Amino acid sequence: MDKSMIFLVLLLFVVAPPCCLADPPSPTPQPKYTVHLKDKDVENLGYRCVFLEDLNDNILQPGQETKLEVYPGLSYVCNFKWQSKDKYVKVFDVGFSSDCVGEFDKDCIWEARRDGFWFYSPKDGWSKMYDW
């Protein structure tokens, strides 16, 4: 390397802005989203959520709930079965995220009822989103 090139490299380190030499900033923490699936009054509520590693059919009884960790930016669908009824419900996507409960980490709360599927929003309370 000739002397002019060495001088140029040294000059670059001396005059380079500090931001270019510092460690990169840590990534901004992202909120954690938890979907709560609650059974209000449905006996033997069957469900299967296709995004879970466990693809077995699961059962909830009245008063029980299950919690699912989800990632923002993705859509999540669960299949619910009760008696002869069979319903696919989108339990999370980007549109629901702003209506979930919590300052940073968010809880998205669903309730299965005999008359359908209800979603809880802090600003609107319980809203029926789907019929059976």
UniProtKB/TrEMBL annotation:
<dbReference type="GO" id="GO:0005576">
    <property type="term" value="C:extracellular region"/>
</dbReference>
<keyword id="KW-0732">Signal</keyword>
<keyword id="KW-0713">Self-incompatibility</keyword>
<dbReference type="GO" id="GO:0060320">
    <property type="term" value="P:rejection of self pollen"/>
</dbReference>
<dbReference type="InterPro" id="IPR010264">
    <property type="entry name" value="Self-incomp_S1"/>
</dbReference>
<protein>
    <recommendedName>
        <fullName>S-protein homolog</fullName>
    </recommendedName>
</protein>
<comment type="similarity">
    <text>Belongs to the plant self-incompatibility (S1) protein family.</text>
</comment>
<keyword id="KW-0964">Secreted</keyword>
<feature type="signal peptide">
    <location>
        <begin position="1"/>
        <end position="22"/>
    </location>
</feature>
<dbReference type="Pfam" id="PF05938">
    <property type="entry name" value="Self-incomp_S1"/>
</dbReference>
